[in-house]
Predict the structure of Phosphoribosylformylglycinamidine synthase subunit PurS.
Amino acid sequence: MPQVVVDVVLKPEISDPQGQAVLGALGRLGHTQVTGVRQGKHFVLDVEGAISRDDLERIAETLLANPVIEDVELHLPEA
Amino acid sequence: MPQVVVDVVLKPEISDPQGQAVLGALGRLGHTQVTGVRQGKHFVLDVEGAISRDDLERIAETLLANPVIEDVELHLPEA
């Protein structure tokens, strides 16, 4: 069954306390090569039958993300 | 600055109430072509200087994920 991956990330200007917390923990553990962390959501959708890229974009942008504060990256299976 | 993406997904045998809730909402809104949803976490790490793939795997598997219930997918920048 084809799978569509949707990554939802905070817009760059939105602060990310979860990512900051992870970054702080990595630094305290000595992983100072990591200089930034942003945390988002990762959805894997099983898709059956015909669904257009437009429909998937609409689902991703309106139902999986909050478009006020989040951006969406859609990864379709290779045709 | 190179970015490393780490996707953390629940192992297939672990139930995913968040994904089930999204799937239910999609069905009620008529998007019945979507037959499964799994929700995970998506981390984007900024990496500076030398860090090995092994180190990144260790960070991802021990600090970003709970290896008892989650699997990790590492996406390194192309060399």
In short: Residues 3-75 of chain B form a domain with the Mth169; Chain: A , fold (CATH 3.30.1280.10).
